[in-house]
């Protein structure tokens, strides 16, 4: 099994530049600003993927001044203004779980290898590998003997509805995908996920719900919904004895009168702030059970998959990200053409609507209207 890890350290590392041309075989790098570098850290000299880019190690001496001392000589000549990245780590640890993603990834024997900075990826050949295994990686400093956090799972078969699959499909449709990062593409997919979630709620008001209890002590009238995923209230039940629950009626803050009386069997609530709920009556301790719309769970790990109702609409996710990439690349005419072709949100809403409730001509009758009454639509 050939396992590849993308070399991403330079994307977020501190950066400076050489002030002079440094010849091959020197153990001193003259730099402009050492403030983001530390003793014993790894330094990438050059851009990731370029010929003669290499990784060197700073000595144990405190970093300061106009030059840094290395633990060994560099291998290549580097011209002035070559970028230097404080990447800290100089190795990649390849880990394997022989029981797939349900297991624990452990370091592979001989699976800790130097980063290959003149390539976009560092590759490792796991000769004992299997298609049923799952892998993780971590960056490592051989000098400091510390590892970074582990990567997401790397598996042989990528699920079609996963974030990794969606991202790759966008790249495959671009002439050149090097001008966009994986994070940018993932953000675009999550933007469209928000749109699709809102469209789903538009045709199914009971989609993407969560619950939370809010406790009130004594005569306290305000309580905070602390769930991090809270978006908007759908329904509230209230109790003052933890036994009998009553459906609370929503009122606007301006509808409450100073001398208005309320009964615990017919409670009311209002939203006082973004996530603060006001109750009536408030003459005793009680609890509000809040059913609420949740914020959309973002796709973050490579193996995160689309919610089930959206899996038949992957083209919409790919097209949306493709449009954003074309705008970013200045290909406005291509973007506008793709926008004109894309009506997937509307299609999604129409196809999600129950076949017996296909539009605004449908009226739900929820009570017995009695005999002798004619209804004309």
Q: What report would you give on this structure?
A:
- Helix 2 packs across helix 3 (182-203) and helix 4 runs antiparallel to helix 5 (332-341).
- 19% of the residues lie in helices and 28% in strands.
- With 377 residues, the protein is α+β, with helices and mostly antiparallel strands.
- Strands 8, 9, 11, 12 and 13 form a 5-stranded antiparallel beta sheet that branches. Strands 2-7-4-5 form a 4-stranded antiparallel beta sheet. A 4-stranded antiparallel beta sheet has the order 14-21-16-17, with no helix packed on it.
- The model is unreliable at 355-363 and 373-377 (pLDDT under 50).
Write out key terms for the chains shown.
elongated, 5-stranded antiparallel β-sheet, 3 domains, 377 residues, 4-stranded antiparallel β-sheet, alpha+beta, disordered C terminus
Give the strand content: 25-35%
Mean pLDDT: 88
Number of discrete helical segments? 6
Shape: elongated
Structural classification: alpha+beta
Report a brief summary of the structure.
By secondary structure, the protein is α+β, with helices and mostly antiparallel strands. It is built from six helices and 21 strands.
């Amino acid at each position: 099994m050939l396992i590849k890890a993308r070399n991403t350290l330079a994307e977020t590392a501190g950066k400076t530049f050489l002030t002079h041309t440094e010849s091959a075989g020197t153990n001193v790098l003259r730099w402009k600003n050492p403030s983001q570098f530390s003793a014993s850290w790894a330094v990438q000299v050059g851009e990731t993927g370029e010929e003669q880019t290499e990784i060197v190690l700073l000595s144990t001496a405190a970093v300061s001044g106009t030059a840094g001392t290395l633990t060994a000589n560099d291998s290549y000549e580097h011209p002035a203004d070559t970028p230097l990245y404080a990447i800290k780590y100089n190795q990649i640890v390849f880990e394997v779980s022989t029981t797939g993603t349900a297991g624990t990834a452990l370091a592979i024997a001989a699976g800790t290898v130097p980063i290959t900075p003149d390539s976009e990826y560092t590759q490792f050949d796991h000769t004992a590998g299997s298609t049923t295994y799952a892998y993780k990686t971590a960056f490592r400093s051989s000098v400091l003997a510390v590892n970074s956090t582990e990567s997401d799972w790397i598996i042989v078969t990528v699920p079609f509805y996963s974030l990794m699959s969606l991202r790759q499909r966008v790249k495959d449709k671009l002439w050149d995908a090097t001008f966009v990062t994986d994070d940018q593409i993932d953000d675009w997919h999550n933007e469209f996920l928000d749109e699709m979630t809102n469209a789903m709620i538009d045709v199914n008001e009971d989609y993407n719900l969560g619950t939370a209890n809010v406790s009130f002590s004594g005569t306290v009238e305000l309580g905070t919904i602390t769930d991090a995923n809270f978006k908007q209230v759908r329904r509230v039940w209230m109790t003052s004895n933890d036994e009998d629950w009553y459906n609370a009626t929503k009122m606007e803050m301006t509808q409450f009168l100073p001398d208005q009386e309320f009964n615990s069997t017919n409670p009311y609530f209002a939203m006082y702030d973004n996530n603060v709920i006001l109750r009536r009556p408030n003459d005793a301790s009680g609890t509000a059970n809040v059913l609420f719309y949740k914020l959309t769970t973002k796709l973050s790990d490579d193996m995160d998959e689309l919610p089930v109702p959206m899996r038949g609409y992957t083209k919409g996710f790919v097209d949306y990200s493709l449009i954003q990439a074309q705008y970013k690349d200045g290909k406005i005419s291509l973007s506008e053409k793709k926008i004109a072709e894309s009506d997937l949100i509307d299609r999604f809403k129409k196809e999600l609507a129950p076949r017996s409730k296909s539009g605004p001509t449908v009226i739900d009758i929820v009570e017995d209207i009695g005999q002798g009454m004619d209804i004309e639509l």
